[in-house]
Write a structure and sequence with these properties.
- The structure holds 3 protein chains of 3 kinds.
- By secondary structure, chain A is mainly α.
- Chain A is built from 14 helices and 4 strands.
- Chain A has one domain.
- Helices cover 74% and strands 2% of the residues of chain A.
- In chain A, a hairpin with a 2-residue loop joins strand 1 and strand 2.
- The longest helix of chain A has 27 residues.
- Chain A is globular and about 60 Å long.
- Chain B is mostly helical.
- A two-stranded antiparallel sheet of chain B has the order 1-2.
- In chain B, helix 1 crosses helix 9, helix 2 packs across helix 3 and helix 10 packs across helix 11.
- Chain B starts with a helix and ends in a 6-residue tail after the last helix.
- In chain C, the strands form 3 sheets. In chain C, strands 7, 8, 9, 10, 11, 12, 13, 14 and 15 form a 9-stranded mixed β-sheet that branches.
- The termini of chain C are far apart.
- The relative contact order of chain C is 0.13.
- The chains are: A mainly alpha, B mainly alpha, C alpha/beta.
- Chains A and B meet through helix 5, helix 10 and helix 13 of A and helix 4, helix 9 and helix 11 of B.
């Protein structure tokens, strides 16, 4: 198989699985599973955004949650003021993208890279966290939307069909929207990476100096990648605000930022399916551990029912045993097995 | 006048505590390029070590200044042997592993000590500046920070261990070719960094509460200080702490703790924009 | 072989469990009770005691033959101090487990996350934490105290004892913001003044400059509405600066996370607090409760907190309503609760106030003394006057919001 054919086959397989999930989940499972899958899909969109800018763009962004949170807050504030969700949806993508453009200009044209870039983005999301967290007083409001500080904004109105205010997206509709969004973002990113632009950003990741000597300005390309990633994260934030009808400052916090990076590492950098798999896997694991909490909180049960302890142990074991991430390791395994099987067939 | 003296003490204290919580991370990051996301938990463990030792009748000063660094240093050595060792040169993987480690330690501490732990109260009493009263322990923390930074500097500059460490830091391959075992250097470095972090945790235990999840409050701040300081361990930590601590405390005094925090973070952004390699990437280049 | 062995062990364990509770009922018939509390993450200091007590209450109910002849089973979710998990687990409890009632939520933020979910999926909800008041929702019952029940009593008491000028330090979120407004209101009404109100986000640990600001303001006493582990540093640094001896302190949050055990006596002795429940409350129900509870969880159990007792009483109110209704069905249980059901709880008599779905209960003012509380004064049967000013579910059963009470 040529590389192109195998990559097309890969997309086809992902799409087939995605469509199967899209069609079958509501028919096979109860509503609670559908709702859980919805949030996993939304978070997977967020994982893809970092998968693009870090995995392919080589930009270690420690503050992807800044764009996610900005998207969620923008949507919440706008929709509570406007009542109709078309413009708020657009804004939830545009505001993080513009913010990323300004921040990215500051970073990339300041020649900041590597771990220093990580610290700047982390700092930005922590500033947002601290600022929003201190808006509990009644004097902090934008239009009719109270920011609510630590308590966040509850009761966010759901999306409606564009321009038709009364046709609100219901719970099942939200599932279809989230799953379809994930598939679309995935396909769009595959297309982007297959384009000339995609090849240039990977070239810059591999060797920035060489790419520059070949006449590409790395700053422009990195900035563009950064902005695209932020826009996707903002969109995921808008979906997230819709899923729980709720947003709070922890969305900007250190734990949330680290979480996104963990998804990408676990799934495998430099792939797109990897971050999706890593995200869904970790989310599922976290929820499953919390759902089976024994009520005994003393003695041995304290160890067995101890979510951080178990999750932490799994992550450490994972790094030591599956160092490259799930997807690349599976790829290696497949590559090892295939020729052997071919030989055996002969 | 009272107010100026008071403010000076508070600023010095902010600088000292920032330097204390960062220097262990600076050593580990500066020498090994390992981003230790379990740094906050090392601090937390230092606090628990001091509290537990004190509970078993050990003098509070020994508990804080000796037991805490020894215990956390030992834990650091174990962590290095079992986890970090396998991940050298893979910065991203160490990040994931230490994040997992941080969760693990929080869980383990909760399981062992529960979440209601009797703390240590600050010894030494208080003294008066005009109409204000200040804890004398504040001055002790400032002193410990100075001694610690001075000690690390002297160690790097005047001992054979320091020479080897500096050599390995500048050029690991060359150091190896000259007969230094880089693995040994790394184990010792990691344990030393952990021990200093444990010391900070022990010394700060009486100032703040000690509970399993307190690490989160520290890790981002120390990380930002270390990166802001740049490559030189002691000078970098000292200068970055001085800048950030002063900005933080003055802004806190003028407004609220939130703006103090935001001012610190904003200062970090401006600093890194102006000096993309940290303070010691531009100034004090030949320092340690 | 191994499969059948495992099966055998499971059966044996289930039988042993049933035998231990002395009731032969099958798990399939059990009435399910959902618990959504933080058992890990920063809020576990509050969540663990609540789940311990809920476990205890259910074991007791089962030992007494269950409810309506059916066993009660706890479905325990650890929300890990994470809002996303609150939503997910509330959905699961309502849709997958189909629990009869959910007890849980600690912060107001988490309550406002799960309240709409449980409304939407028609699952009865008990919120057992003291909070800022004002929630008006027919599907929800609130067993914790609100500011009109505690702040109203403690402010005049402290002013009479110490003086008229108060300095407020509060956690920067809903509870702190609203409680400090109540403090201001009651202080002014009693002829005093509030020197200043300072707010601190929940992760602040350095209070040096606040302490010097308080010293400069020279108040007669300090009111603390600080919350959570990080804020313990305030009391510590306050005492280290030698202030614990010179300016006294009052609080309606201190002790909820067992701060009186974490701090040393000389750091917090003499502080005044006001709650519904203290372990030292003298009545036969409390003596019996503590004896049974300590038998189950050990005599060295640190302290049954205000929130834990709220949870215990919430469960008992619900259980009584189920008995009265003869069914665990949501609407029937709500109807039964709305008759103004009343129990003899360890904290004294606790009665549901039908128009607000809050509780009429005793409150007590106590003083911190050597890691314990000394009761000073009792105020029997306090009504939730704050919520009652805005909420009447008898008249508007479809009301569904949290009011911000204006005064």
């Amino acid at each position: 198989m040529t590389a192109r054919a195998s990559s097309l086959a890969g997309i086809a397989v992902v799409l087939a699985i995605g469509l199967a999930v899209l069609v079958l989940t509501p028919r096979l499972f109860e509503l609670d599973v559908v709702l859980n899958v919805t949030v996993y899909m939304i978070m997977a969109v967020l994982a893809l955004s970092l998968g693009l800018i870090w995995g392919f763009g080589g930009i270690l962004c420690f503050g992807q949650s800044a764009f996610f949170g900005l998207g969620a807050y923008t949507y919440a504030i706008a929709v509570m003021n406007m009542g109709e969700s078309t413009l708020p949806l657009v804004l939830s993508v545009v505001v993080p993208a513009v913010f990323a453009a300004l921040l990215g200009y500051f970073i990339f044209y300041g020649r900041i890279s590597d771990v220093y870039l990580g610290v700047i983005t982390l700092t930005v999301t922590l500033i947002l966290f601290n600022s929003v967290n201190s808006t509990a007083g009644p004097e902090f409001h934008i239009g009719s939307a109270r920011l609510g500080g630590f308590n966040g904004i509850p009761g966010i109105p759901a999306l409606n069909v564009p321009f038709f205010k009364d046709w609100q997206v219901d719970l099942e509709g939200m599932f279809y929207l989230a799953t379809a969004s994930l598939l679309l973002v995935y396909v769009a990113l595959r297309a982007l990476l297959a384009s000339r632009f995609g090849r240039v950003i990977v070239a810059i990741r591999e060797n920035e100096g060489r790419a520059q000597l070949l006449g590409y300005d790395p700053r422009v390309y990195k900035l563009a990648t950064f902005v695209i990633g932020a826009a996707i994260a903002g969109y995921a934030g808008c979906l997230f605000a819709n899923w729980g009808n709720f947003v709070s400052p922890t969305i900007f916090g250190l734990a949330q930022s680290a979480q996104i990076i963990i998804w990408v590492i676990v799934g495998g950098r430099g792939t797109l399916v990897g971050p999706i798999v890593g995200c869904i896997g970790i989310q599922w694991l976290t929820a499953a551990l919390g759902a089976n909490a024994p009520s005994e909180t003393a003695g041995w049960a304290a160890l067995v029912g101890n979510v951080p302890l178990i999750l932490g142990a799994i992550l450490i074991g994972f790094v030591l045993l599956v160092p490259k991430g799930i997807l690349p390791t599976l790829g290696d395994l497949a590559a090892q097995l295939t020729p052997r099987r071919a030989k055996a067939a002969r | 006048m009272d107010l100026v003296a008071l403010l000076a003490i508070q600023v010095l204290y902010a600088i000292a505590s920032l330097a204390l919580i960062s220097v262990g991370l600076a050593i580990i990051f500066g020498m090994m390029k390992v981003i230790n996301l379990a740094h906050g938990e090392f601090l937390m463990l230092g606090g628990y070590a001091a509290i537990e030792a004190n509970r078993y009748g050990i003098n509070i000063w020994i508990a804080m200044l000796v037991v805490a660094p020894l215990v956390v240093g030992a834990i650091g050595a174990i962590v290095e042997r079992t986890i970090i060792r396998w991940l050298y040169g893979r910065m991203i993987d160490t990040m994931l592993a230490t994040w997992g480690l941080s969760l693990f330690l929080v869980g383990l501490t909760t399981a062992v000590f529960g979440n209601t732990t009797v703390g240590l109260s600050a010894p030494l009493g208080s003294f008066e500046i005009g109409s204000y009263r200040v804890s004398a322990y504040t001055l002790f923390v400032i002193a410990v920070a100075f001694v610690t930074l001075g000690g690390v500097l002297a160690m790097l500059r005047f001992t054979r261990l320091g020479l080897v460490a500096r050599g390995a830091m500048q050029n690991a391959n060359m150091a190896a070719a000259l007969g230094v075992n880089p693995n040994r250097v790394y184990s010792v470095t990691f344990a030393a960094g952990a021990a200093l972090t444990g010391l900070a945790g022990g010394v700060l235990a009486p100032v703040s509460g000690v509970f399993p999840t307190i690490g989160v409050a520290y890790v981002a701040k120390s990380f930002i200080t270390v990166i802001g300081g740049g490559a030189a361990i002691v000078t970098g930590t000292a200068t970055a702490s001085a800048l950030f601590g002063a900005v933080n405390q003055l802004a806190t005094y003028a407004t609220t703790p939130v703006f103090g925090e935001v001012a610190l973070l904003a200062a970090a952004i401006v600093l890194i924009r102006l000096l993309p390699q940290g303070i010691t990437g531009r100034f004090f280049r030949r320092s340690l | 072989m191994s499969v059948s062995r495992r099966h055998f062990l499971q059966t044996a364990a289930a039988t042993a469990g049933a035998a231990a509770f002395g009731a032969p009922a099958f798990a399939e018939d059990a009435i399910l009770v959902g618990s959504l509390h933080d058992l890990s993450g920063g809020l576990d200091i509050y969540g663990k005691p609540m789940v311990d007590v809920l476990t205890f209450a259910i074991e007791e109910a089962n030992a007494g033959g269950g409810l309506l002849g059916r066993q009660v089973k706890l479905i325990n979710y650890d929300t890990q101090s994470n809002m996303q998990l609150y939503t997910q687990f509330a959905q699961q409890a309502a849709l997958k487990d189909k629990v009869a009632v959910v007890h849980g939520g600690i912060t107001s933020a988490s309550r406002e996350v799960i309240r709409p979910v449980l409304d939407k999926f028609k699952t009865l909800y008990f919120y057992n934490t003291q909070y800022e008041g004002g929630v008006c929702d027919r599907n929800q019952f609130d067993t914790g105290v609100t500011p009109a029940q505690t702040v109203e009593k403690l402010v005049p008491y402290a002013m009479k004892k110490w003086g008229k000028k108060v300095y407020v330090v509060a956690a920067d979120y809903n509870y702190g913001q609203i409680t400090s407004q109540w403090v201001k209101k009651y202080a002014t009404e009693n002829g005093g003044e509030v020197a200043a109100i300072d707010f601190f986000p929940l992760d602040v640990t350095n209070f040096a400059s606040t302490i010097s600001k308080i010293q400069a303001a020279k108040p007669d006493f300090v009111w603390s509405a600080l919350v959570g582990g990080a804020h313990i540093s305030f009391y510590r640094q306050w005492a280290a600066a030698g202030m614990a001896k010179s300016i006294p302190m009052a609080s309606t949050t201190f002790g909820v996370g067992n701060e009186q055990i974490v701090l040393n006596p000389d750091e917090c002795n003499g502080m005044l607090v006001c709650y519904n429940y203290f372990q030292g409350v003298k009545n036969p129900a409390n003596t019996a409760f503590l004896e049974r509870f300590h038998k189950r969880f050990g005599a060295d159990y640190p302290n049954v907190t205000e929130l834990a007792m709220g949870t215990y009483q919430g469960f008992q109110l619900w259980a009584d309503a189920v008995k009265k209704a003869g069914s665990a069905d949501r609407l029937k249980v709500i109807d039964a609760l709305e008759t103004g059901i009343s129990i003899d709880a360890p904290s004294g008599k606790v009665t549901i106030d039908p128009p607000t779905h809050h509780c009429i209960l005793d409150v007590h003012i106590a003083e911190v003394k050597d890691r314990k509380f000394d009761l000073l004064e009792d105020f029997p049967q306090q009504k939730p006057a704050d919520t009652a000013a805005v909420c009447d579910l008898k008249k508007n059963p479809n009301d569904n919001q949290q009011y911000i009470i204006k005064f």
